[in-house]
Amino acid sequence: MSTPFRSGAFRLSPSDYRALTDTARQNPEAYWQTQGTRLEWVNAPSSAQDTGNGWFADGTLNASVNCLDRHLETRGDQTALIWRAEEADHVVRLTYRDLHARVCQMANVLRAHGISRGDRVAIHLPTVLEGVIGMLACARLGAIHVVLFGGFSPEAIADRLADSGTALVITANVGRRGAKRIPFKTTMDSALSLRPETLFVRSVLVVSVTDEPVPMQAGRDEMLTPLLEKAEASCPAETMASTDPLFLLYTSGSTGKPKGIVHGTGGYLTWASYTHELVFDHQPGDVFWCTADIGWITGHSYVVYGPLSNGGTILLFEGMPSHPGPGRWWEVIQSHKVTTFYTSPTAIRALMREGNELPRQYDLTSLRVLGTVGEPISQEAWSWFDDVIGGGRCAFVDTWWQTESGGIMISPVPGAVKEKPASATLPLPGVHPVLLDDKGQVLDGATEGVLCLDGSWPGRALTIWNDDTLFQTTYLRPYPGHYFTGDGARRDEDGYYWITGRVDDVINVSGHRIGSAEIEDALAAEHAIVESAAIGIPHDLKGQGIVVYAVARDPSHPELEMLAVRAITAKVGRYAAPEKVYIVPDLPKTRSGKNVRRLMRKIACGETDGLGDLSTLADPEIVDVLIRIVQG
User: Fold this and answer.
1) In a 3-state reduction of DSSP, which class is residue 447?
2) Domain residues of the chain, as ranges?
3) Which CATH architecture describes the domain 506-631?
């Protein structure tokens, strides 16, 4: 099933889109040189494409200047950022001139604390203004920001601080999540106390979200607001090479060790700007609301760098979708006349449960483009979002991309590409996906296989921090000549792509990628558990839920499941809590000792017919044992 083209004054027609695609294919160097001109360069690059030295390799620029300074003359008094606090009547609007001044003040505070080009600064904040301001202040100085998701445990934070060599942390006294208070500062204190010999943090700057006091360590911790109030509102910007790192962002991998994905400056910013304008049909006057936390790549690319580099207006919302009552998001859209709404299938499934009548009580006619990100969306959720929220008149962009890609890769383009419910549709101009079989052979036509990408693109990650060998072995060597995404996909007779999920051992919970090895590593620290295996299963709300099979030292221990959950949430975070923990005598393994996750996944899902040839297992009889335990 496909939808007709939506009505509206979109930037591109189908013929425009085909022309861009043809140009990108036939003359990629000229195409990307043209796209590079959307940025303001200190020294314009002489070439665009990555020939081994990175994209726009000899160009120099500053990301903060591209998001702020260059807009001051033409749109200095335009609203750049709307912050809607937990309290409905607390709204802060910053013009480009205001935001520029605040970023300069933050940059001067960081500089006064010894931060300079190449230093790493961790940002561990709830959805407050200082998160965006801190990112842009780092970019202004040439420092590398490391944004940490607020739901991380102290262990997870300590791992990332140690690996990145972070010198300074910006955190908050608390975060507000409805009536709850999230202990940001005490969580950070716990992280810094875990392995002090591996950490290099000299300073901790604390944002006051509320008046609640928190412990402060003399000589290390300072409240941030008084420092900002004294700082100058102007600060020169560091000139950076296009290939200099802009930020590190940690993503879980199948090794259990978080991977610090490194994104450069010129290529990444070009890609964020290009995809934001193209996919969301960005136009003057748009109010862009991406609900992602800035701790994830979606928040980097489509809360901060994409919209601001394009001179847009972004909305930040501190509160929850249904607090203090249902309909909070719809009220925000109505109040601020949001035109573009970009969220996750998990959030959509939760909002669907409130029924159809509630959103219809609000005026949502300002909406022009709806988008989804983070995981494949079901046809039911797609249709509900389209019909009930968009009224069937909005463009719908179901986007596929990853932390490593820097921005959107496959997506409808409003007015130019017909939508199909639950399909990511077609690659953007300049993106070249291929489907491969298990032997690495390219599959043609309507088929299903491993999703890889040919060639490079400006937003592609530069490397993994301190481990380029891992970058090569993870993404470039599995299928030589192709970039391996880790996802599987189906391509239909129209050339449209349908993402079928991970083909490696990463579990996608509400758009959060969690390595199974990361969960198993947490359980290895629990003495009562000898061995474990974590797998992902379909979940109506989260997309995927986590199921753990655990082998116990003493199966009669009365609290094994509770101990397992506690170990995972303590080391990984609350968002990684498993749906179910099964205590089992052994795990199904090959004769070489490899866990057979395919079998465990099928058993957990109740798909026990047609399990295939079990003769390759070291102990085939364990399969029947697991089935009896799972079925109760």
Assistant:
1) strand
2) 506-631
3) 2-Layer Sandwich (3.30)
Residue 255 has pLDDT above 60, yes or no: no
pLDDT, tens digit, for every residue of 450-493?
999 999 999 999 999 999 999 999 999 999 999 999 988 999 99
Residues 161-175 have a mean pLDDT of: 97
Give the chain's end-to-end CA distance (angstroms, integer). 40
> E strands of 528-596, at which residues?
529-539, 543-552, 580-584
Write the burial class of residue 366 (CB in 10 Å: 0-12 exposed, 13-18 middle, 19+ buried).
Answer: middle
359-365 long-range contacts, CB within 8 A, separation 24+: 359/327, 359/330, 359/388, 359/389, 360/388, 361/327, 361/330, 362/327, 362/330, 362/331, 362/333, 362/334, 363/334, 364/330, 364/333, 364/334, 364/389, 364/390, 364/391, 365/391
Six-digit token string for 32: 């990307």
Tell me the H-state helices in 337-378: 345-352
Q: Is 390 left (phi over 0), alpha (psi -120 to 50) or beta?
A: alpha
pTM: 0.87
For residue 451, the tally of other CB atoms under 10 A from its CB is: 26
Question: Given this model, what pLDDT does residue 612 score?
Answer: 73
Q: Looking at residues 585-606, what average pLDDT do you find?
A: 84
Q: For residues 111 and 347, give the distance between their C-alpha atoms in angstroms, rounded to a whole number.
A: 39
Strand 180-182 to strand 369-372: parallel, antiparallel, or no bridges (unpaired)?
A: unpaired
Token code pair at residue 120: 């790493």
> What is the pLDDT averaged over residues 46-61?
92
Residue of 41, 458, 4, 473 whose CA lies nearest to 269: 458
The structure tokens listed for 564 are 């397992």
Burial letters for 578-597: b for 16+ Cβ neighbours within 10 Å, e otherwise?
Answer: beebbbbeebbbeeeeebbb
Beta bridge mates, 539 = 543
Residue 206 · residue 221 · CB < 8 Å: yes
Task: Please say whether the beta carbons of 123 and 99 come within 8 A.
Answer: no
Residue 14, CA distances (Å) to 6, 74, 285, 418 in order: 12, 31, 24, 9
In this structure, what is the dihedral angle of CA atoms 195, 200, 206, 212, given to the nearest 10 degrees? 20
